[in-house]
Write a structure and sequence with these properties.
CATH superfamily: Vaccinia Virus protein VP39
Structural class: alpha/beta
Number of strands: 11
Helix content: 25-40%
Distance between the termini: 38 Å
Bound molecules: S-adenosylmethionine
Order of helices and strands: EHEHEHEEHEHEEHEHHEHEH
Largest sheet: 9 strands, mixed
Number of helices: 10
Radius of gyration: 19 Å
């Protein structure tokens, strides 16, 4: 296990505004089982949904370009797209494995989180029920969903090998949104009591006049951001910074990403001046995170011309 705390080679003024973070090259469940109860104030994560796509065998297939569960999408609109995992191929056993994965995750998180802590968890319309049900049955309150409006390459295809025979048919809708489940560990007493004692229970408003909202337009990470953090499931800073900011209502506490991949959540927390902890089991992705976090944290999403307008 590698444990790292980073200090940036920057002026004091900038360093003081950046959040502290720790990252660990470790299995999330091992880390969670050793973590203190009531020690984490929010979770923002994009889990693997697998068990399948992030196994060594499937990662090897992706690397060699022969697919496996990774669909290599055609290049279109001038951009070469990254491979996407195909969730539709999950069979009954895979679904059961997912359900028990999220059951275990919810159980561990309920213990480690402080009362009133929120969990933002990325999912997709095909499998979200396999995530939500275990969270609810383990005692989390469902607090809604954040809809990230983003056009992915999932769905919209004509029937495979029969597209000429059925030119007017899409097998399933072309996906234009990504649901992020929003859960809360029950508060101790009223929200105001919980806020005083644990600093959690609500979501940080965007401003005096604007509450946090559950619809966020956010295009896929592209261009410089993707060069900095070449992970197949990279989430954009534009989106994650809004989420991590909302997750700590009083702007203090610790955000955990148990499946940090390239560390994009951690970078977003650093950029927002928030404390965070990231976990990643895969050595190669952990290496990407080590290098990417300091760069992503100072990356300006609105300054990247390649970060196109498509949602
Ligand atoms: C969907 S990706 C997250 C990508 C991330 N959103 C980003 O922007 O880079 C999920 C990550 O979880 C990691 N992972 C899978 N099982 C894990 C486990 N048991 N403990 C820690 N990390 C795990 C995978 O290696 C993968 O990098």
């Amino acid at each position: 296990m590698i444990r790292q705390e980073y200090l940036f080679n920057m002026s004091n003024a900038i360093r003081q505004k950046l959040g502290k973070y720790q990252i660990f090259n470790i299995d999330a469940f091992l880390w969670l089982s050793n973590a203190k109860p009531n020690s984490i104030h929010a979770v923002v994560t994009d889990p693997p949904y697998g068990l399948v796509e992030y196994t060594a065998k499937q990662l090897e297939k992706k690397k060699n370009g022969n697919g496996g569960v990774w669909r290599i999408p055609p290049s279109f609109d001038g951009c070469q797209r990254s491979p996407l995992p195909r969730f539709t191929i999950l069979n009954g056993n895979d679904k059961e494995a997912l359900r028990s994965f999220f059951d275990k995750l919810a159980r561990e998180l309920l213990r480690v989180l402080v009362p009133g802590a929120h969990v933002f968890i990325a999912t997709n319309p095909l499998v979200s029920y396999l995530v939500y049900e275990p969270f609810i049955s383990n005692g989390f309150e469902k607090r809604g969903e954040v809809i990230r409006v983003v056009q992915t390459l999932r769905g919209g295809d004509r029937p495979k090998n029969a597209h000429q025979e059925f030119p007017d048919i899409s097998v399933m809708p072309r996906s234009c949104w990504e649901p992020w489940g929003l859960f809360r560990k029950p508060c101790e007493g009223r929200v105001q009591d919980n806020l005083r004692k644990w600093r959690t229970g609500g979501l940080r408003r965007v401003s005096d006049t604007e509450p946090f909202k559950d619809l966020i337009y956010s295009p896929p990470a592209r261009g410089i951001e993707r060069e900095i953090a070449p992970h197949p499931s990279l989430k954009p800073q534009h989106y994650l910074r809004q989420i991590v900011r909302a997750a700590l209502p009083l702007g203090s506490g610790i955000i955990l990403d148990p499946f940090m991949g390239s560390g994009s959540t951690i970078a977003a927390a650093v950029a927002c001046g928030l404390e965070s902890i990231g976990l990643e089991v895969n050595n190669e992705f952990f290496g990407i995170a080590e290098r990417a976090i300091p760069k992503l944290a100072i990356y300006n999403p609105s300054g990247d011309n390649n970060n196109g307008p498509e949602y």
